[in-house]
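Note to self: keep these together.
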Amino acid sequence: MRKAAVVVADLGGFKEIEVSRSSACEGCSQNKDGSCHACIALGDGNRAMRTKARDELGAEVGDRVIVETDSGTVIRYAAEVFLLPILLAAAGYFVGGLIGGEIVPYIGALLGFAAAFVFVKLVPAKRAENNCDVRIVRIIGRQESTDHDI
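Structure:
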């Protein structure tokens, strides 16, 4: 997956970049007139996201760049966020059914669902500390110097 970004900070061999978030409902007519309930609930104010990117091209702060993430990585993260809670809730329900009782399967499903969110919060964050999945693949615009001291 490729996306345009702006370099906002130099972190040594890495750069902090700002990427504009895309939304699944950008083309929706309700989003355009401000009546979309999901956009109102989530707040449509800040559409920018900051992350760390590997830089082997020598980008500078203010440069516009193209960043890339492998499609397999994006799919893996999506599976962790969307499928894992469902699978762990189902496993919890099944284990609770084996234990017995009328309410135990529901408690097991709830615990499995909660465990998935703990996993999603801790494991990818730890993985991100050790590995950077985003890399700068092209510099599309260098910032011109704007210092005009007299």
